[in-house]
Design goal:
The complex is a heterotrimer.
Chain A lengths: L2 E12 L2 E12 L3 E5 L6 H8 L5 E8 L2 E2 L5 H7 L1 E4 L11 H7 L10 H11 L1 H5 L10 H13 L5 E5 L7 H18 L2 E6 L2 H7 L2 E6 L2 E7 H6 L1 H7 L3
Parallel strand pairs in A: 3-8, 3-9, 6-7, 7-8
Antiparallel strand pairs in A: 1-2, 1-4, 4-5, 9-10
Helix pairs in contact in A: 3-6
Chain B lengths: L4 H11 L6 H15 L5 H24 L10 H17 L4 H23 L4 H19 L5 H4 L5 E2 L13 H25 L1 H11 L1 H6 L4 H27 L1 E2 L6 H14 L6 H19 L3 H16 L3 H17 L3
Antiparallel strand pairs in B: 1-2
Chain C lengths: L1 H31 L6 H17 L4 H24 L7 H23 L23 H23 L1 H11 L1 H6 L4 H27 L5 H16 L4 H23 L4 H15 L14
The chains are: A alpha/beta, B mainly alpha, C mainly alpha.
């Protein structure tokens, strides 16, 4: 099993404050890996550190076997990492379709854009309905779908998802995760999923890591973590 | 509004009240400046008077922009209002200078406050825009033909320098220089008290984070318009002094270049500092004269280069540099 | 009545110039939330360059296009060398730097080209347009050029991929970077475009007001007023605002306050808009979040 992402000893700091204190994790190709933890554990920072985005990092990050420690954010996107940031990051002043088209920026082959648009619309039919609407007028759930679809337009090898369930109603979250299951099966993209909602994350993920104040404290298959007592008490409310 | 830590640190250092040890030096400086009146030629005294007038104006601008964070690119307009008020009062109403100058300050205060009230809604950038327009438009307004009977139009107004009172054995130049010196000391003391008082802290709180200040009970509207008024008053007094020193006012003395000079003075001296005004005043007094020898437009060029360079290299101005040196010295002497 | 129409047309002509400069201002504002105080002086400098090229013997249109290209490069370089290093500096520092740029361009123009007023040619005949008593060929030409400029820009932003990318980078640089968009390069592009627009505006206004270093300060103020009236983050608004200000300036100057106070009208407009409706006619109201 090849590892699409391999991180060793990753440290990250905002200014002088170190937030990640040397973490190791990996994502297997074609699999979903969840990164769980409470607020402030450093989950978003981990995703940002992978992309060298707004944070100072040290340690080794291997993407598809190649070191990307000193590669810029824009270059990492071009290499095939799709980052859906926390808060969605949609271009609220642009239309849905324009948002999706922007997703293609990092691709080398821009020809298949129309086909990819259609494919996104089959995953997210609601986006097709709102094709020409301003993204800012979409509901939270729709904006999340838009953000995911936009990242997928780049045909990434690795999808980084930052708290897709945040601020969304449970039914909407169920919807989105069902679509993500489909995407995982049909798109052959590996996913690193950061989530506060451990339950729904573990339902989708194959493996999982638990992050607490900048350190990995547990790792294993999602079944193992689901049955772990500490995890159940702290994060699954059992 | 975010600030780089460097600029913040410099502002903190230079905003602290002068330590007790500094007062004897200040007294020596003032006495020396006064003594100078008896040893130098009239023209040098004139330059000294102008420098002091600029210093007062820069203190005024700093109160608004440095301590209260409201950017004004048009303070030349208030300098002009002060100058013209004094000139008109003296020329048309026969008022003596020691009435005209405070009156000028008052007129500027009123106009400044009046401008400050609607300007309350304007955040940094927009205020800069509005004051920029004000600075550009001021000379045009002064040339307005319907105001000519008062302002003397393009030709301006000629004034006489006040003579020493009570028959003191001083030339007009000496007397006016000493008068200005005393006034400058007074205004510095006033400014210092204002800045160190609760009002000053409120002003600075508004500068650093106006929403936080408001939620802590600081009446932003009152303080911000008051800052405008006080700042304009200082600059107006300075303008009046310059009118008397030069013995002439005309619209073309108060162009955009003046407003920009004042900004340059504040930047060079140090934003949010009091003593910086002296360095800044010296800079805008002497540098253009030197630069003009190279070429007529060189003064502008030097200003532009200075503005940009200082923002990159010395955002705290001369006072910032001094504060950093002072800090380094205390660190060294304490064996750190 | 004839005077009225003449003034409206004159207003639309100068309005076209204000609209162009206002558009440049809004472009930079949208991308950076900064107002380029130096926009006018950069345009003036470009116009001087054109003048020099024409003096050197280049035909008008060759000089025109060469100037536009050089101005584009100049704008991009200024963004990269002066503005970008300060992107995290406090507002006051940035404003001071803009003023510094204004002053430098003003002085370099005077230094290199001299401050004597110069004549600048117009590619359109100066005389009446088809013997109309109401407008000159230059006026019509100016309005036409302004409209073409505006149309070209809108098409660029709305229908091209690059334009879309620029809009995205201006609205949300963080998300853009995550998509692989090089925001820095697009900022340079935006500044280059703004400078090019300014150059065109300068070359359109110079034949009327004659070329000297102080040519554009008034235009800048009017352009500010136009941009604010339209909404400083709205390009369409900026254009409409620019034309509106041009017409208002002329009408109020002719019928109300007299021509010497025309610039004061701009000041009143600026302060008025900022106080009554800071978002302008078409801008978005910005709510400050705690």
């Amino acid at each position: 099993m090849t590892r699409v992402l391999e991180i060793k000893g990753l440290r990250a700091a905002y200014g002088a404050t170190e937030v990640l204190h040397g973490i190791d994790l990996h994502v297997d190709e074609g699999r979903v890996t969840a990164l769980l933890g409470a607020n402030g554990a450093g989950k978003t920072t981990t995703l940002r550190a992978i992309c060298h985005f707004q944070v100072k990092t040290s340690g080794s990050v291997l993407f598809r076997g190649e070191r990307v420690d000193s590669v810029s954010t824009e270059q990492i996107a071009a290499l095939g990492v799709g980052h859906v940031p926390d808060g969605r990051g949609t271009f609220v002043g642009l239309t849905t379709e324009e948002n999706l088209r922007l997703g293609c920026h990092a691709r080398r082959d821009r020809n298949a854009v129309a086909d990819d648009l259609e494919r996104m619309f089959t995953y997210f039919p609601r986006l097709k309905e709102r094709r020409t609407q301003q993204a800012g007028t979409l509901s939270g759930g729709e904006q999340q779908m838009l953000a995911i679809a936009r990242a997928l337009m780049a045909r990434p090898s690795l999808l980084l998802l930052d708290e897709p369930s945040f601020g969304l109603a449970p039914l909407v979250v169920k919807d989105i995760f069902a679509i993500m299951r489909r995407i995982r099966d049909e798109e052959k993209v590996s996913i690193l999923l950061v989530e506060q909602n451990a339950r729904i994350a573990l339902e989708l993920a194959d493996t999982a890591y638990l992050l607490e104040t900048g350190r990995i404290v547990k790792s294993g298959t999602s079944a193992e973590l689901r049955n772990d007592d500490a995890v159940r008490r702290a994060y699954l409310g059992q | 509004m975010e600030r780089t830590t460097a600029m913040n640190a410099q502002m903190q250092m230079t905003a602290s009240p002068a330590p007790r040890a500094l007062w004897p030096w200040v007294t020596v400086l003032v006495v020396a400046a006064a003594a100078m009146a008896f040893f130098v030629k009239g023209y040098v005294l004139f330059q000294g008077t102008m420098l002091l007038s600029y210093a007062i104006a820069l203190v005024g601008l700093n109160i608004l922009t440095g301590y209260n964070g409201q950017i004004s690119l048009g303070h030349g307009a208030f300098y002009a209002i002060g100058a013209y008020t004094a000139a008109v009062l003296m020329d048309k109403a026969g008022a003596p200078y020691w009435v005209a100058i405070p009156a000028a300050g008052l007129a500027s205060l009123v106009v400044g406050y009046a401008f400050g009230r609607p300007a309350l809604k304007l955040q940094g950038l927009y205020l800069a825009l509005a004051t920029f327009a004000l600075g550009v438009v001021a000379p045009q307004l002064l040339k307005y033909k319907h105001l000519e009977p008062w302002t003397g139009g393009v030709g301006g107004i000629v004034l006489n320098k006040p003579e020493a009172p009570f028959g003191l054995p001083l030339t007009a130049d000496q007397w006016f220089y000493l008068f200005t010196l005393v006034l400058t000391v007074l205004m510095f003391v006033l400014a210092r008290n204002l800045i160190d008082s609760g009002t000053g802290r409120a002003l600075r709180a508004i500068r650093d984070h106006d929403m936080a200040a408001e939620s802590m009970g600081v009446d932003n509207r009152h303080y911000k318009s008051m800052a405008f008024g006080v700042s304009a008053a200082f600059t107006g007094v300075a303008g009046a002094l310059s009118a008397l020193a030069v013995q002439f006012v005309s619209p073309d003395s108060f162009t955009m270049f003046l407003s920009i000079s004042l900004i340059v003075g504040v930047v060079v001296g140090g934003v949010g500092t009091l003593w910086g005004a002296l360095f800044g005043a010296a800079f805008i007094m002497f540098v253009p004269a030197v630069a003009e020898k190279i070429s007529k437009d060189a003064a502008w060029g030097v200003y532009g280069a200075v503005l940009i360079l200082f923002m990159f290299v010395m955002p705290g101005g001369v006072m910032g540099l001094i504060a950093r040196a002072r800090e380094r010295l205390t660190r060294v002497s304490s064996g750190a | 009545m004839e005077i009225f129409v003449q003034q409206v047309i004159a207003g639309l002509t100068t309005g076209g110039i204000y609209a162009s400069v206002a558009l440049a201002l809004v472009m930079i504002y949208q991308a950076t939330h900064h107002v380029n105080f130096a926009q006018g002086e950069m345009a003036m400098f470009s116009t001087f360059l054109a003048w020099a090229l024409i003096q050197a013997g280049l035909p008008y249109w060759a000089a025109f296009f060469a100037t536009v290209v050089v101005s584009f490069v100049l704008g991009a370089v200024v963004e990269f060398a002066v503005i970008r290093p300060l992107h995290r500096a406090p507002e006051l520092s940035v404003v001071v730097v803009f003023i510094g740029l204004l002053v430098i361009f003003h002085s370099i123009a005077g230094w290199i080209f001299g401050t004597q007023i110069k004549e600048f040619p117009t590619p359109f005949a100066k005389d009446a347009w088809y013997a109309s008593r109401l407008m000159s060929a230059h006026q019509v030409g100016t309005i036409f050029v302004a409209l073409c400029l505006v149309a070209a820009l809108f098409s660029f932003f709305r229908y091209t991929t690059l334009g879309l990318t620029m809009r995205a980078a201006a609205q949300n640089p963080a998300s853009s970077r995550l998509l692989g968009i090089n925001v820095g390069r697009l900022l340079m592009l935006g500044w280059g475009l703004a400078a090019a627009i300014g150059a065109v505006a300068g070359m359109m206004v110079a034949p009327v007001v004659y070329l000297d270093p102080s040519m554009m300060i008034g235009v800048l103020i009017y352009a500010f007023a136009g941009a604010l009236i339209g909404g400083i983050d709205n390009p369409v608004g900026a254009v409409i605002g620019g034309f509106l200000v041009g017409v208002l300036e002329n009408l109020i100057g002719t019928y109300v306050v007299g021509t010497e106070l025309k610039l004061s009208v701009a000041l009143v407009l600026i302060v008025g808009v900022l106080v009554v409706r800071p978002a302008g006619l078409f801008g978005r109201r910005v709510v400050q979040r705690v």
